TrEMBL record:
This is Polyphosphate glucokinase. The gene is ppgK. InterPro entries: ATPase_NBD (IPR043129), ROK (IPR000600). It is an enzyme of class 2 (transferase). It comes from Mobiluncus curtisii. Pfam families: ROK. Keywords: Kinase, Transferase. It comes from the Bacteria.
Length: 247
C-alpha cells in the first residue's frame, strides 16, 4: 500500500497522520497537539518534530505539511493568521533542521482542495473546481481538470473596499455573532463575485462550519453548483501527503 504522512498546521491544532495514498484514508490514529500560543516558525517546527518522532515516520516516506499561507519555492511571502515571523521563512530548511526530514510545504487550502478533488466531493469533476475553506480566514484552491493552480489567495480579494475574509470568514461570523441568515448575505456577495470572475464548474465548501452546510448553502443563489466538502478535517492531512508523494 502506498503510504504518505501529512501534517496540518492550523490556528488551534497541529495534526498528523499516516495516509493511504490510494483512498486518502488515515492509517491509524491522528495525533493532535495544540498550536503553541506564540505560533512562531520555530515553535511550530518543534511540534512537527514531536509528531514525526512520536509517530515514527520513516525518513524516506513522502511527508507533506500545510500552513495557512502561500508557499512559493518553499518560501512564505506573507501570512495572515499566524505569527508574523513566518514571512520570509524557508519552510523546507526550517523543517529539515528540526526534524531531519525533507518536508514538502503547501498552502492549507491547496492541500484540502487537492484532497477533495482526488478523494472527496469533487472526485472526477472536469473543468474548474474552486474549493473554499471557511475558517479563521478564507482559503481557496483552484483545480482545473485535476491540476492544482497553487497559491490562489482569493480569500483576500477586495469586495466593496474590504478584504473578503474580514467580512465573510466563519471566524468573523463567530466574532460578530452573526446568524446563518446574516452571514449568508456576506457569503452570497463573496461567491457571486467569485462566480463572475472565474465562471467555475463547481464550488466546494470546506472548513469546520461546512458540517452545518444545511444552514447556509441552501440560502445562496448561484448559477454554479455549490456543495459541502466530504473529507472535512481530514482533507489538509490527506492532501499534504498526496502532494508530497506527487500522486
Ligand atoms: C491565508 C491563506 C490560507 C487561508 C486559510 C488566509 O488568510 O492568506 O493562505 O489558505 O487563510 O487558512
Amino acid at each position: 500500500m502506498a503510504t504518505g504522512f501529512g501534517i496540518d498546521v492550523g490556528g488551534s491544532g497541529i495534526k498528523g497522520a499516516y495516509v493511504d495514498l490510494e483512498t486518502g484514508d488515515f492509517i491509524g490514529d491522528r495525533l493532535r497537539i495544540k498550536t503553541p500560543a506564540h505560533s512562531t516558525p520555530q515553535a511550530v517546527a518543534e511540534v512537527c518534530r514531536q509528531i514525526i518522532e512520536e509517530k515514527g515516520v520513516p525518513e524516506d516516506m513522502p511527508l507533506g505539511l500545510t500552513i495557512p499561507a502561500p508557499v512559493k519555492n518553499d518560501l512564505v511571502p506573507f501570512i495572515a493568521n499566524l505569527d508574523q515571523g513566518w514571512a520570509g521563512i524557508d519552510v523546507r530548511v526550517l523543517l529539515r533542521k528540526y526534524t531531519g526530514h525533507m518536508v514538502k510545504c503547501v498552502n492549507d487550502a491547496d492541500a484540502a482542495g487537492y484532497a477533495e478533488v482526488r478523494y472527496g466531493a469533487a472526485r472526477d469533476v472536469p473543468g474548474l473546481v474552486i474549493v473554499t475553506t471557511l475558517g479563521t480566514g478564507i482559503g481557496t484552491a483552484l483545480i482545473y481538470n485535476g491540476i492544482l493552480v497553487p497559491n490562489s489567495e482569493l480569500g483576500h480579494i477586495e469586495i466593496d473596499g474590504k478584504d473578503a475574509e474580514s467580512r465573510a470568514s466563519s471566524g468573523v461570523k463567530a466574532a460578530k455573532k452573526l446568524s446563518f441568515k446574516q452571514w449568508s448575505k456576506r457569503l452570497q456577495k463573496y461567491y457571486s463575485t467569485m462566480e463572475m470572475l472565474f465562471s467555475p464548474d463547481l464550488f466546494v465548501v470546506g472548513g469546520g462550519v461546512s458540517r452545518q452546510h444545511n444552514k447556509f448553502l441552501p440560502l445562496l443563489d448561484l448559477k454554479t453548483p455549490i456543495i459541502p466538502a466530504q473529507l472535512r478535517n481530514q482533507a489538509g492531512i490527506a492532501g499534504a501527503a498526496a502532494l508530497a508523494a506527487g500522486v
